[in-house]
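User: Predict the structure for this protein chain, please.
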Amino acid sequence: MGLMLWFCGYPLVVGLTFLLTDDGLRTAGASGFAFSLHEDLSGRLPGYVDRRIESGVAETLSVAQITATESPLYGAFFYLQATERLQRQWEEDGSLARESPAEVGKEAVEASVRILLDEGHAHWVRKYWGDDYLSDPNCFYRMLLIGGLTSHHNLTGSREHLGLLEELSEGLAGAIDDSEVGLVDDYQGQCFPCDVACAIVAVKRAGEVLGKDRGRWSRAALARMADLFPGALPPYMARAEDGMATVASRGCTNGFFLSYTRELDPVASDRWYGMFVEDFWQEAIGCGGWREFSATSGAPEWYFDADAGPVMFGFGTGATGLGLGCARAHGDDYRAGTLGAEMMVCSIPLPTGTLLVPRLVSDLEHAPYFGELAVLHQLSIVSADGGKEPAKAPIPLMVWGVLCFEALVSWVVVWLCLRLWFPKGWRLWRWRR
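Assistant: Here is the predicted structure, written as structure tokens:
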């Protein structure tokens, strides 16, 4: 009975409650579940960060251990960005949570900055770029630092890291400007154009903190990159030297890319999002989601790598997870609501506050909260079309299937337990009474 209540009864009740009461899960609007998840993660992150830094394990890892090296910092970036967004939403509508996210996450915000700036956690980056890793191209790592430090300042008002923030943002902007085609490598010979676009957004936001208007620069930098791939989504990978695509566009990077680009160029971003919907959105087996590979690519329907996660029936785990935010950013209530409802029931929330499935697909040793932080980051994004009346998406058939399965299992276990407790039916109870 206890196991049933833990893994079926509680997820059933919580899932139904949020689906029926949280309009933000069924639209592209602010979600109460995001605030609940933020509160839970805010209590867990400080201890995790302190233990990890003290252990020194980050300095023992090789660059081949991608989730072990990248995910702890990526998760800290996700948390800081999400907390900043939720704080703005709470300031507009205080009914979304009892306390402000900035206050609830006060310790976790500082812990996230500690792990971002910890030299031990830069060990893998130093292996790639050497001791001058903060001034080499190094796009991805510098983007994480710039985005995280910007959010830290906006949440706390602290000016402690503004000197480093200016150095990093000016350096990365200079690297993009100095590039022949506007692309910069994450690692030697590994350029991901979508990361470059997100870095451009990070530099623009840092400029707002530092009193530098980089709006025109950021729009020009994004347009320069887009000109390399006219009429198409950016490829998964390209050569930084000449912009030649080396790996075709993929869902796991497109979702992250389109979560940010709308604030730079809404017209271009809406056009890209339309391409993403046309080539990557899929509805099958009673659910909707983003494909990892374009429907016309001929790529396998079953696949796995560190970026994509498991790909099943064409649906990409990373693509669908990071594609929730881009649907929300573009005010696509139908797809945002479809993915929000699926996420709510398929994540299997437990009484401890853990989302079971995101936890299981994370690196349990090195970044156990990464999956939940990614969900938080995506749910914190809201539609920029503030005047638009949201329209709830219908609940997908698969969601009803999961809820019915949980209800059936709960009923069967309760019935079996009653039969075991009262093997002779209710006669014993009546006799005693």
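Strands lie at 237-238, 245-247, 281-284, 287-290, 303-305, 309-312, 315-316.
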